[in-house]
Amino acid sequence: MAIVVNAGTQAQTGTYSESDTSYFVDCYYKKFDYQATYEGGTAAYDSGLVYHTSIVNPFSITVSSITDTTISGSFSGDVFMGLNPIYPKVTITGGKFYLKIY
């Protein structure tokens, strides 16, 4: 999972959605029992525009807290096999993260 903000910009608390062009949102998911990988975020959104396919549950990351030592929040949305919204999907709900900043 990643949020990439424009150069010179700091990440802030708030919700980062795949359709906003001021940053890049990405999620990579692999089921343990399958070889298939799933991805969602800005690239999947862009692929949906190319294939004229809307994404039912757009992928988003919500940053709820940033301190000098940690960042935490939640994430949810659709991720697609092969990064293409016309292929099978997995819907992620209630994802949470808590990471240390070094």
How are the elements arranged and paired?
Layout: E1 2-5, E2 14-17, E3 23-30, E4 37-41, H1 42-50, E5 60-66, E6 70-81, E7 89-100
Antiparallel strand pairs: 1-3, 2-5, 3-4, 4-6, 5-6, 6-7
Question: Can you give a write-up of this model?
Answer:
The chain has one domain (2-100). It starts with a strand and ends with a strand. It has 1 helix and 7 strands. Strands 1, 2, 3, 4, 5, 6 and 7 form a 7-stranded antiparallel beta sheet that branches. It has one helix spanning 42-50; strands at residues 2-5, 14-17, 23-30, 37-41, 60-66, 70-81, 89-100. The mean pLDDT is 86. It is mainly β.
Major sheet description: 7 strands, antiparallel
Query: What distance separates the N and C termini?
Result: 18 Å
| Average pLDDT | 86
Radius of gyration of CA atoms, rounded to a whole number: 14 Å
- How many DSSP H or I helices? 1
Structural class: mainly beta
Shape: globular
The topology string of helices and strands comes to: EEEEHEEE
How many separate domains? 1
Unreliable stretches covering 5 or more consecutive residues: none
| Portion in helices | under 10%
**β-sheet strand percentage:** over 45%
Number of strands: 7
Oligomer: single chain
